[in-house]
Amino acid sequence: MPAELEQTLALLSSHRSVLGYMLLSRGQPVSIIRHSGVIFEGEQGRKYASMIGRIVESVQGGLEEDDVRFMRIRTKRHEIMISPDERYLLAVLHDPAT
After folding, report:
1. Which of 2, 23, 33, 87 is most buried as measured by Cβ atoms within 10 A of its Cβ?
2. What's the pLDDT at 25?
3. Cα–Cα distance between 15 and 2 in angstroms, integer?
4. Which backbone phi and psi does 13 adopt, to 5 degrees?
5. Domain of 89?
6. Preceding peptide of 96 cis, ω within 30°
7. CATH number for the domain including 46?
8. Closest by alpha carbon to 91, among 9, 2, 6, 15?
């Protein structure tokens, strides 16, 4: 993994409001390359990965002329921030109340 990506992941993990992150491949099906946080382990992690992949594909499919650079989805308890790239999807789950 590139050093710049390693630094970014380390910085994200150190922030107190971050509950975890997932680095996903862009292929079909989306696969987990790396993750942190208990919330992204096992079956729950695979569900999040699949959901994030579907969200990104759906949004990008609806915007033919613009590339999506960043998405922010807020629920009652958490916020998911997604940064799609040509090769990867980076998703960060954080607690906005922290």
Report:
1. 23
2. 92
3. 21
4. -65, -30
5. 3-94
6. no
7. 3.30.450.30
8. 9
